[in-house]
Write a structure and sequence with these properties.
The protein is of the alpha/beta class and 505 residues long. It is 35% helix and 19% strand. The strands form three sheets. Strands 1, 2, 3, 4, 5, 6, 9, 10, 11, 12, 15 and 16 form a twelve-stranded mixed sheet that branches. The protein has a two-stranded antiparallel sheet with strand order 7-8. A two-stranded antiparallel ribbon has the order 13-14. A hairpin with a 4-residue loop joins strand 1 and strand 2. It is globular, with a radius of gyration of 24 Å.
Length: 505
């Protein structure tokens, strides 16, 4: 083991690198087990305090105790905490699958966020700035990069050989494989950092919601680690089926929100605030639009025309377009069609973002305007931040998106497993956060997920929903960065049981 100290103007860094198998000096490899510790100061929620950032790697072991992969993480702890047993610990994951845990790390809950304008668009010079709304004032946070994301990698065996593609899929790249190895990894992390007594929370975004829904059950039933809260940010279906009429109907409130944002609605609807418009569209969707789609070709002609007219009005589309699609409007058509006459497309993950195509004709946009914008600002920021502020040096490429495909999606029971985890644990609460302009995991689907998560209704007092005037990463809009962190902070604090309160029904 080698011990090296780095002293800078404002940061003191302690680097610990544990010995790993020796390789040729000219080969590019990540340290299997390492850590770099840096000290920082913050002003969050009006309060000044110091905190410690630990960035490093921790192995994933197989059942024989061999290191088969290593995961890179960043762990933030508030300093001068008298009793860490009462201090919440939040495990943060992004999705993809194949996405690094960079998005929420550098734009949502962490103490530093990337430099963007108030609506989330890139600005130069690139970099990061303080996040005055981070939840670090009330909770410690760990950002974890699954295998092949960030600096995390599959490891070679003693013969210098990587596992076969099929073996890698069985170990890492599937709904259930992902959950299993991450639960084991978290057990080791909690033990190493002596956090078994701390209240624990899981937060996942996009596919990360599938991940944390499954982890809640896996941690409780295989690692015997009980969770206080799960936060689903822009959730996927988490295994809750909604094909056919439900899937088609649930898009309409998102269409209405996007059309309203781009001032593509009729004057009477445009004059309404979004908080007034969306409940109206939601009621129409459930009570009239869904039954109409369910009737299919046997929907009476007069009723069909009335539905077509109203759907077109809410979605900002022509009646002819709605009729030609038999009421089932594909999202890729919508992103192309809504502003076709203006010569613009709208974003998939955040429909506030505009793009321009080679041809105004066509069925779908040439590219995703929002994703290109995000990669524009996040890539330089995370590479700078890890190397120069957290002092983690490596020649390994930081994978914002890594190769994890083909991903095995069979046996996805994560929603049901989250319900079971809640039933098993009276302490466990769930909050959903969604942006109204997210067309990939739309907010009304997220509400539907919440409704269907517990069909009995016996646990609905432990389920909550928060919506925001932004997209998939709702925190990129400055106003929502503040409100979403405040909602998360309130959720964490309210999910902590009173001292001495037993976990029982």
């Amino acid at each position: 083991m080698k011990l090296v100290s780095f002293i800078g103007l404002s940061v003191t860094a302690l680097t610990l690198t544990f010995s790993t198998p020796s390789f040729a000096d000219n080969e590019r490899r990540i340290d299997v087990d390492s850590k770099v510790v840096t000290e920082h100061k913050a002003r969050i929620n009006g309060e000044r305090f110091s905190y410690t950032a630990t960035t490093g790697t921790q192995p994933v072991w197989d059942e024989q105790g061999n290191a088969v992969a290593t995961l890179q993480y960043t762990y933030y702890t508030r300093d001068k905490v008298d009793d860490r047993t009462k201090r919440p610990l939040v495990f943060s994951f992004n999705g993809g699958p194949g996405s690094a845990s960079v998005w929420m790390h550098l734009a949502y809950t962490g103490p530093r966020v990337l430099k963007i304008d108030d609506e989330g668009y890139p600005v130069q010079p690139y970099g990061v700035k303080d996040n005055p709304y981070s939840i670090l004032d009330v909770a410690d946070i760990v950002y974890i990069n699954p295998v092949n994301t960030g600096y995390s990698r599959v490891l070679e065996n003693e013969k210098g050989e990587l596992p076969s593609k099929s073996d890698q899929q069985k170990m890492f790249f599937g709904v259930n494989a992902d959950i299993k190895y991450l639960a084991e990894w978290l057990n080791t992390f909690v033990s190493r950092n002596e956090r078994w007594r701390s209240p624990k929370f899981l937060i996942g975004e996009s596919y990360g919601t599938t991940r944390v829904s499954g982890l809640a059950h896996e941690l409780q039933n295989r690692q015997w680690m009980y969770i206080n809260g799960v936060i689903l940010v822009s959730p996927t279906e988490i295994g809750i089926k909604r094909e056919g009429p439900v899937e088609a109907a649930n898009r309409l409130p998102y269409f209405a929100a996007t059309a309203w944002y781009h001032k593509a609605l009729s004057a009477d609807l445009q004059a309404k605030d979004l908080d007034e418009l969306l409940p109206e569209v939601e009621q129409f969707t459930v009570n009239k639009f869904l039954p109409a789609i369910a009737k299919g070709g046997f929907l009476p002609a007069d009723e069909k025309q009335a539905i077509i007219k109203q759907v077109a009005k809410y979605a900002g589309l022509s009646e002819k377009f709605v009729e030609q699609n038999n009421l089932d409007i594909p999202t890729n058509f919508f992103w192309k069609e809504l502003l076709r006459e203006r010569g613009q497309t709208v974003g998939r993950l955040d429909s506030r973002y505009l793009g321009i195509d080679k041809r105004d004709a066509g069925e779908s946009p040439d590219y995703w305007a929002e994703l290109t914008s995000w990669l524009h600002s996040f890539t330089p920021a995370i590479n700078y931040y890890l190397r120069e502020e957290l002092n983690y040096k490596t020649d390994i490429k930081y994978n914002l998106f890594g190769n994890v495909h083909p991903w095995d999606r069979t046996g996805n029971n994560t929603g049901e497993n989250l319900r079971l985890a809640m039933a098993q644990n009276p302490y466990l609460n769930v909050m959903i956060q969604s942006g109204y302009y997210d067309g990939a995991t739309n907010y009304f689907d997220a509400k539907y997920t919440m409704w269907q998560l517990d069909p009995s209704g016996k646990m609905k007092d432990r389920l909550s929903f928060k919506g925001y005037r932004s997209g998939h990463m709702m925190y990129l809009r400055h106003a929502d960065l503040e409100s979403s962190n405040n909602d998360l902070r309130d959720f964490i604090l309210k999910s902590l049981p009173a001292e001495g309160k037993a976990a029982k029904y």
